[in-house]
Amino acid sequence: MSSMYPGQQMHVQLPRGYNDTILSITQSTTPDPYVIFVNGVYYMTWTAGNRIEIWSADSLFNFESRCRKDSIWHPPPNQPYSGDLWAPELHSLNGTWYIYFAADDPAHGNKSHRMFVLTGPPCTTSPLDPSTWSFSGRLGGLPDTQWAIDGTVITLHNSLYFVYSGWPLDHPSTPDESKQELYIASMSSPTTCTSPPTRISTLDYAWEYSGSSGINEGPQFLSSPDGRWAGLVYSCAGSWTSDYKMGVLAYAGGDPLHASSWSKWREPLLTCARDGSPPYGPGHGNFVDVMGNGGREVWAVFHATDKRTGWEGRRARVMRVGWNECGPHMGRGECGVCWEEVFGEVLSRD
Predict the structure, then answer these.
(1) Distance of CA 11 to the CA centre of its chain
(2) Distance of CA 136 to the CA centre of its chain
(3) Does domain 17-348 have CATH number 2.115.10.20?
(4) pLDDT per residue over 6-51, tens digit each?
(5) Which of 84, 145, 205, 217 is 20 to 30 A from 271 (CA-CA)?
(6) Planar angle of CA 200, 284, 196, nearest 5 degrees
(7) Where do the domains of the chain lie?
(8) Coiled-coil intervals in this record (predicted)?
(9) Which of 224, 310, 228, 218 lies closest to 270 in space, CA to CA?
């Protein structure tokens, strides 16, 4: 599959050992980036709003300068899933490609956001042909009345689970729209959940709020290279602010459907730099394995912006994940110097 790209993987000179350098991998606006590496190709999905796009390249660090861009699905008009397509994720499950995304009914707006699924071709083939994708409808088994976004599929104990961000279920007829919590449900197939959702994270700390809005969203699975640590990294506070950040739910073992199997860290994993320098609002991405000089490395992919406020200019960035006896770390827990890549070279920003 790599023959579609101009050349082989380019060697990128990075500082030796762990450091907190951030690399920008897109110059275009790409909020909510999700990257998966399959068959020698890095595929990225992101929030385009009115369509689903897949970008693909043979390099993570020089991504946009080397990528192919394909629009693979547009929703028909006037449907419950025609508006505000958010945070699509491309997954390879049971030998088939799937895309999970949130969308709403334009007639009812944001409150109608629910999770939907596209089914694609076998994962031994390219996912870039629009004719190979079909709409599978709403993700089965989730509560009909619950606002739901940012869904992802994780595997624990050889079983599939769906984790997503939703409004509280305490009062489904009158949900508290100021709070987003994290929920998990078991799956019998890539298109169907089979257990009632369990809340595994709510708003516990002041740093998860922006004003009166308490937000837990964008959950992503993360595991250490040696397999000793596993958990979920989520984004919190307002994505429209510089305070957007990433927190951690460590998996303590046992049944993933029990809230007691998850333990929230008291401090964030990554925030913007304390000295006020850009980038701002790091969050909503995922984790991808990269083969470095010393073996397998885990890199975080996330969006951040050069502007202090607003959603404008959120671009995909990457930063290496470090490991210690407690689990993952990202340097001092704040964004380091951000480098820009141009024509395959990593250049230091002025």
Answers:
(1) 26
(2) 21
(3) yes
(4) 322 333 444 346 678 899 999 999 999 999 999 999 999 999 999 9
(5) 84
(6) 30
(7) 17-348
(8) none
(9) 218
